[in-house]
Each structure stands twice: as C-alpha cells, then as structure tokens.
Design goal:
Helices cover 27% and strands 35% of the residues. By secondary structure, the chain is an alpha+beta fold. It starts with a helix and ends in a 7-residue tail after the last helix. The relative contact order is 0.11.
C-alpha cells in the first residue's frame, strides 16, 4: 500500500512537468520549435526531475542532462527573444526499431563458429538555431554503430556468444551567414579532425564536419559539438 502511494505521487509529479519533459520520460524524445523563453522553462522543469522521480522506468535518458540541457543553455544565450530554436531529439538509442540494417556473415576460424555483423544508423540529434547576429546554425549528430556477434566453442564444448560494438559519430555543423556580413578565411587551418567547406552566394554557407570514435564520456560531447561549431564562426567577426 505504501509503495503504491509512492508511485502515485511520482506519476503526479511527472504530470506536473513541462509537456516536453513528459515526452522525454515517456517517448524518450521530441521534435519541436520554440522561442528561447520556452526552452528555458523546459530546462527549469528538467532540473526538478531527480528530486521528485526515483523509479528507474521514469528516469530521463542520460543524454538529457549531459548533452541536451547544456546545448540548449548555450544556444539560447546567443538568441534574441523572437528567434526560434528547433530541436529533434531521438534518445531511444541505436537498438530502437528501424535503425539496424541487415546482417551479414563474416569468415570465421575455430574456435569461432560464426560471426554475424550488422550496422545501425542513429541520427539522434538535429538542432536549428536563429542566432542574434542574423545567421542560422544547423547541428546534426549521427551515430553509426557496428555490431559483431561472435559464437565460439571452447575445448570443453561450451558455447559462448559475445557481441562487440564500435561507434563512429559524425558531427556536422552548418552556418548560414547573415546577408551582407563580411567573410574572410581564417589565418589558421582547422584541427586535422575537422573538415570545412564554404559555399559562396547571397548568404555564405560554412560547413564543418567531424568523424570521431564515440569512446569518450558523453559529458564531453557538448564541448566537442561547440568546438566543431567554432570553425564556422572563425570566418566572420562576432558582433555584440
């Protein structure tokens, strides 16, 4: 009885959260465009989660506090009140239905009986921000996960299965510079792990992309995204 009352209180707390906060709990994602003030309201709601919700099934995805919230805070600081920040987040992970491709068999040698390999493509984050300098910033993060399921039989005839994964993450940042803004090539090239492309026109477009192994703590990802983003801003002078 006491436990049932406890769960009811937690459900009631979730129902009082911001609607997008509830979507992150129940659907592990959302796709929406909002002005900065509404995003700040979501961040304030998310800050209350740990204090009110203890049940494992209602925990926020790990990437919410580690990645999503820091990016929202940084981007909204660089936006005017009427600007729009659009975010499409799918935090279900690469094992969610529809993300995995077909399996293929790889050659195997004893004691390995068989090796199955397949890939999952997980485009889990897309962001579009209208910045105060008149430029538009697009961010996309895509994980490509390689799975290898190995079936091995030891000398005692015991069967063992093991699945290994390797994740390559692609970070792509595109900045559409405001009309009439002065553009100049940076004096120093980008780091070797970042590639840049520039398309001239009425509005210059600068794209920076990076492919990295996702073998570092997720808490470092916002800084990595911002480092890639910085390459698009080195082509112009920031305005106050």
């Amino acid at each position: 009885m006491v436990l049932a009352v406890f769960w009811r209180k937690q459900r009631a707390a979730i129902e009082g959260f911001h609607p997008l906060h509830q979507a992150l709990v129940h659907q592990q994602g959302f796709s929406v465009s909002l002005p900065p003030a509404d995003w700040r309201a979501l961040v304030a709601s998310l800050a209350q989660h740990q204090a009110h919700v203890k049940r494992r099934k209602w925990r926020l995805p790990e990437r919410v506090p580690l990645v999503l919230v820091p990016l929202i805070q940084v981007l909204t600081e660089d936006m005017r009140g009427k600007a729009t920040l659009s975010i499409a987040a799918d935090l279900r992970g690469p094992d969610a239905p529809g993300k995995a491709g077909p399996q293929q068999r790889l050659p195997a040698r004893r004691p390995v009986r068989s090796v199955a390999q397949w890939y999952a493509v997980d485009p889990w984050l897309r962001i579009r921000a209208e910045l105060r300098d008149g430029s538009v910033l697009d961010v996309e993060v895509v994980d490509r996960v390689r799975y290898r399921k190995i079936h091995k039989v030891n000398s005692r005839g015991k069967h063992k299965w093991k699945t290994k994964t390797k994740t390559v993450r692609r970070i792509a940042v595109t900045r559409r510079i405001a009309k009439g803004a002065a553009v100049a090539r940076p004096s120093a090239p980008p780091p070797r792990w970042i590639r840049t492309r520039v398309k001239s026109g009425e509005r210059t477009v600068v794209q920076a992309t990076a492919k990295v192994l996702a073998n570092y703590p997720e808490a470092q990802l916002p800084q990595q995204i911002l480092q890639v983003s910085t390459e698009t801003f080195r082509w112009t002078r920031r305005t106050a």
